[in-house]
Amino acid sequence: MKKIVLAILVLTLASATFAPQTLAQKTSKQSAANKQPQWREYIYPQDGFAITLPYAPRPHYDAGDRHINVYTVTMGKTVVSLRAISRLMDCETGLADLWDKADSNKDPKEPVVRGSLKQVSLAGMKGLQYETELGSGERSLHRFHCADEHKFYIFNVGYAGKQPPPDVARIINSFHLVSQAHN
Length: 183
What we know:
Elements: H1 2-26, H2 28-33, E1 40-44, E2 49-53, E3 60-62, E4 65-75, E5 78-86, H3 91-104, E6 118-122, E7 125-135, E8 138-148, E9 151-160, H4 166-174, E10 176-177
Antiparallel strand pairs: 1-2, 2-10, 3-4, 4-5, 5-9, 6-7, 7-8, 8-9
């Protein structure tokens, strides 16, 4: 079971890593069309969360996996994606494995930024966060949270520069859990 959880999380992380790079290139036309963002709360009771975003996200399944819904918003060169994983898994073990992988910092293609690995909490959920270098002055923020043994949330943010734009914190901090029965 531990190997399955780790495999799912590694595959999800790998796909999240490449999504911001390709989406940022495709969205320069979208940003011109969407000049003034209309921040509002979007509620997804099927995935048990609500979040405030400047634009409506583009939900889709991650690599066709019906257990992983991806919600993506592009803001200029910044791409924010949230993956909601709905399947039975051992979240504590998954977080520990992700911590060990990030702490070992052995990925030459996307090295972890020194000092960025830390424990975080969001809406009462345990989690971890770190940043990676993508090259060409771009970085990616990775954030993982366990809601329970059936829900796992992964934020991935691709951005230019050394710090994520302020809107990224606004988005992440707006995230909160909702009941499946919420309308």
